[in-house]
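User: Hi! I'm working on a homework problem where we have to compare a predicted structure to a textbook description. Could you give me the structure for the chain below?
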Amino acid sequence: MTQSKFYIPSLDGMRTVAFIIVFLSHAGLNHIIPGAFGVTIFFFLSGYLIATLLRREYEVHQFINLKHFYLRRILRIWPGFYLILFLATILTLAGVFKESMRLSAFLSQILHYYNYSNPKSFSITGSQALPGNRCKRGSASPAKMEAEPPDLRYQALPGNE
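Assistant: Happy to help. Predicted structure tokens:
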């Protein structure tokens, strides 16, 4: 087995369906089209493809080089990520997008710590611009806001203390 490009043409149709589902949901049809289902399809395909690539590497070399694996992932994902981030930033600063932007929010995206940072430090506009509030899980509706985020601390199940 060689290290040639690995490609499964039959998955293109599944990618297309997933894209259309997400696109239509974002286009305002989210009450009809479940956009999260399209995202689930993408995650499923990604997991399958990554596991297959790792399995193929192991079959050839009898080990998996995680350094090379993550380097390939970075080289595949980051260029598009930064292109979109910088285009959106330029368009926002130019006034094309009527949203506000804060340096802390921009840095958290560019340095990849957004998911781990304090959401109260970001400038959010629109229906979510309620200071100190967060949506309940499974709901993006502003009518279902609660003052504090849910308690996500570890709780041992009975018998597993």
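For your comparison, note the following. The chain is about 50% helix and 0% strand. Residues 121-157 have pLDDT under 50 and may be disordered. Good luck with the assignment!
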